[in-house]
Amino acid sequence: MAVLSFLLSMLLLFVPTAVLGFGNGEDYVRPLPRKTLSLSWPWQNRKMSSGPHQVHISLAGPKHMRISWLTDDKSSPSIVEYGTSSRKYFAFSEGENLSYRYLLYSSGKIHHVVIGPLEDDTVYYYRCGGQEPEFQLKTPPSKFPIKFAIVGDLGQTDWTISTLAHIGHCQYDIHLLPGDLSYADYQQHLWDSFGGLLQPYASSRPWMVTAGNHEKESIPFIKAGFQSYNARWKMPYEEGSSNSNLYYSFEAAGVHVIMLGSYTDYDEDSDQYTWLKTDLAKVDREKTPWLLVLLHAPWYNSNWAHQGEGDEMMAAVEPLLYAAAVDIVIAGHVHAYERSERVYNGQLDSCGSMHITIGDGGNREGLAFRYKFPKPEWSVFREASFGHGELNIVNATDAFWSWHRNDDLEPVCSDKVWIKSLAASACRRNDLLYRRYDKVEVAP
């Protein structure tokens, strides 16, 4: 018996748990990993381009969109022409530009131009810097339903291409990415190849991102962190009264989305904590009944990978989110998928947030196969496969969440659940909130 126990322990330690058939979703047998896309010399500059490239768009306040792109021609103007018919531009906007150096690497000219005001749920055609090609985008709707595509830890592998292809078929309005974008990891040319890989998708729908650990790229005494990320992926932090591109919020239709930074200060004396407290206090749940939060390092994680890395942030910030009745918290970092019940302080709680870990976009480091047993009471579904999530918010009270593994056709839901918003629940009663957390100020 002792020998059998020892052999079982060794099996659990070294064999991917998905092969062992434990738990919902964990009995799935996935194909072998695909290869990483070819890499070049770490400090090689991007290939020169005659026109705008690495085009991506993001929301920039109500009825406005930020168009971002690079050019190798330093004299190229930072202008965007746009209109509702192809080749017929009735408006243009001028913006800002910058470039940066990173050791032996020199970036192209990075342009950021805000256009608008724009009509909701409308297709616009646009051109960057007065040059071809023409792109088109669709603005999000102003009313429900609204659909988000969600995936983290994207990277640049064959699995990434599969994930993007699936996302391209799901007819989303906004893409949310909770950190770890290019996996450049100091090799700056990989930011350029990543921008080219995303352009067909990120040039047509807004991509809203937050930073992960692979965006740090800091070199002690030489380079501060997040230089490349901040230069290339400017988010609407100024529009949301934040003083950092690493945390911000925005609204779309009836949804208030908060993007937090797992790798910048978050304790009660920090700027991020103060900003978050103020931002939550401003949320009008009559106008925006759904409240979502994204960050990189998960707080509820039953995978052995990255255990406990979100604990300190959770201790500081979770009471704020609980008091504000945040509906869903979405994280990446762990290269697998997991969905929880509503939970708070480690326990099931009908007023807590649903937590989703979705760091399964296609990174080069592979999947995180090993899960902890027994499975925590709050964990509903977990599986180590590449895939993406879709959040279809149907109306003020109901939303449908689904997770789609890359091995299946995009319409196949490997995990799905209907979710009720907490906006109309007793969870937001002011007397209850103030009694529990006298330091939390939440708008009535």
TrEMBL record:
Matches recorded under CDD domains: MPP_PAPs
Domain of life according to the entry: Eukaryota
Alphabetical UniProt keywords: Glycoprotein, Hydrolase, Signal
Listed GO MF terms: acid phosphatase activity; metal ion binding
SUPFAM superfamilies: Metallo-dependent phosphatases, Purple acid phosphatase, N-terminal domain
A Pfam family annotated for this UniProt entry: Pur_ac_phosph_N
Signal peptide, first to last residue: 1-21
Residue ranges constituting the Purple acid phosphatase C-terminal domain according to the UniProt record: 354-408
Domain Purple acid phosphatase N-terminal: 52-139
Span of domain Calcineurin-like phosphoesterase: 146-337
Keyword Nucleotidyltransferase: no
InterPro entries, alphabetized: Calcineurin-like_PHP (IPR004843), Metallo-depent_PP-like (IPR029052), MPP_PAP (IPR041792), PAPs-like (IPR039331), PAPs_C (IPR025733), PAPs_N (IPR015914), Purple_acid_Pase-like_N (IPR008963)
Enzyme Commission identifier(s): 3.1.3.2
Reaction(s) the record says it catalyses: a phosphate monoester + H2O = an alcohol + phosphate
Gene3D superfamilies: 3.60.21.10, Purple acid phosphatase-like, N-terminal
Keyword ATP-binding: no
Family classification: Belongs to the metallophosphoesterase superfamily. Purple acid phosphatase family.
Protein name: Purple acid phosphatase
Lineage of the organism: Eukaryota, Viridiplantae, Streptophyta, Embryophyta, Tracheophyta
